[in-house]
Amino acid sequence: MIIKSAELETVCGVTSKLPDNQMPEFAFVGRSNVGKSSLINKLVNRKDLARTSQQPGKTQTINYFRLNDAFYFVDLPGYGYAKVSKELQAKWGKMIERYLLKSKQLRIIFQLVDIRHEPSAGDKQMHDWISANRLPSVVLVTKADKVSRSQISKQLAMIRKELKLKASDRLIACSKETGLGFDEVWTVMEECLNGTGTESPEAGRIDN
Ligand SMILES: Nc1nc2c(ncn2[C@@H]2O[C@H](COP(=O)(O)OP(=O)(O)OP(=O)(O)O)[C@@H](O)[C@H]2O)c(=O)[nH]1
Ligand SMILES: [Mg+2]
Predict the structure, then answer these.
(1) Hey, which of 28, 29, 38 would you mutate to test ligand 1's pocket, going by the most ligand atoms within 8 Å of its Cβ?
(2) Of 20, 40, 114, 190, which sits most exposed with the smallest number of CB within 10 A?
(3) Quick check: pTM over 0.85?
């Protein structure tokens, strides 16, 4: 995909009304510091479109990036960052949940997990919640450059098992350093935008 234009269009805080977008959205969820904002930048090849940090808790709002005037990437705050108060974490959790359930344009949730670790309780809870709500999702396993090549498939198998993925569920290893996985992630999105994916993007969506 050639990205001709990329801009931050809407920023929503905990009390904001979500925008009534008319174009497809792809959302990025995962633990704080897992690499959501970095992945967005790398996918669109813009260094600083989404703000990133070595410190967890960088993204604190729902940020809608409008791409090619055709679709959106939605960058979400991370979960499970201990230094954020329980109260604020709960507010962000509700905000994320509200977005994931209410957005009419959400096509795919990309759930990011770190290749180096067993999925956290928060990762498992998020995955179970996505499945229970029958929302379309793809798991992206980030920071693949941090483990050896031989470890990649081992870690993918471990993550697949821990998240209880079905054989048909997609799991893609990615690295913002080497570009691993980016072609496959774009293919998933292009299939969805062109309506040629294996599953209907609206399949199983719950209206509420
Ligand atoms: N080596 C390596 N580092 C990465 C990769 N992706 C992200 N990082 C690093 O991980 C840190 C966190 O990245 P962010 O993109 O800010 O993470 P985030 O998930 O958006 O975090 P929050 O906004 O706090 O939820 C940064 O220091 C990135 O440089 C990767 O593929 N490889
Ligand atoms: Mg971020």
Answers:
(1) 38
(2) 20
(3) yes
